[in-house]
Amino acid sequence: MLIKSSEFFKNLPPKKCIECGQEMEEQHECYGNKCNECLQVVYK
């Protein structure tokens, strides 16, 4: 049985950073796998 792609993405588990294990707040289907802290992103 096929499901809608929107349902598939909605049911994915929260994404976790591969370096520290923290849950990431971004979209689960994105390609990034490190959180902002591990990437050392600075917001101004």
UniProtKB/TrEMBL annotation:
InterPro entries: YhfH-like. It holds the Pfam family YhfH. This is YhfH-like protein. The lineage of its organism: Bacteria, Bacillati, Bacillota, Bacilli, Bacillales.
